[in-house]
Specification:
This protein has 137 residues and is an all-alpha fold. 88% of the residues lie in helices and 0% in strands. The protein has one domain. The radius of gyration is 19 Å and the shape is elongated.
C-alpha cells in the first residue's frame, strides 16, 4: 500500500506543479500591480521573497499536496470520504508546520517580516493622511 500511495502521490504532484506555478505567478503579478508602493519600498528581490514566503506554502498545500494525497489514498483502496478527510488533515498539518517554520527560521523570517512591516507602514501613513493624524515614531 505504501508503494502505491507514494507512486500515485508523486505522479499527481508532478501533474499539479504547472497549475501551482501558474497560479503563483498570477498571484505575484496581481500583488505587484496592487502593491506598487510596497514593491518600491522593498525592491523587487525582497518584495518577491517576502510574498513567496507568505503565498507559496498554502498554495502548494492546497493545489499539489492535497490533490496528490487524495488521489494516492483513493488508489491505495481508501474510500472517497476517507481519502478526502485524510488529505484535508495532512494538508492542514503541512500548512501549519511550514508556516511556523517560515515565521521562525532565517532567512524566511526576515523576508516575511520586512514584507509585512512595509505593508503596515504604508497603511499607517495612508490612515494618517486620511484622518489628519501624525503618528509618533
Amino acid at each position: 500500500m505504501r508503494d502505491i500511495l507514494w507512486s500515485a502521490s508523486v505522479e499527481r504532484a508532478i501533474e499539479q506543479m504547472p497549475w501551482f506555478a501558474g497560479l503563483l505567478l498570477v498571484s505575484v503579478a496581481i500583488t505587484s500591480l496592487v502593491s506598487r508602493e510596497r514593491l518600491r519600498r522593498l525592491g523587487l528581490t525582497r518584495f518577491l521573497l517576502g510574498y513567496l514566503c507568505i503565498a507559496a506554502v498554502p498554495l502548494f498545500g492546497v493545489i499539489v499536496l492535497r490533490s496528490a494525497l487524495r488521489e494516492g489514498l483513493e488508489q491505495a483502496g481508501r474510500g472517497w470520504w476517507a481519502a478526502l478527510w485524510l488529505s484535508l488533515f495532512w494538508m492542514v498539518a503541512f500548512i501549519v508546520v511550514t508556516q511556523w517554520l517560515v515565521r521562525r527560521v532565517p532567512p524566511t523570517r526576515g523576508w516575511r517580516r520586512d514584507y509585512l512591516q512595509a505593508g503596515r507602514d504604508i497603511w499607517r501613513e495612508r490612515l494618517g493622511r486620511w484622518l489628519g493624524v501624525r503618528w509618533r515614531e
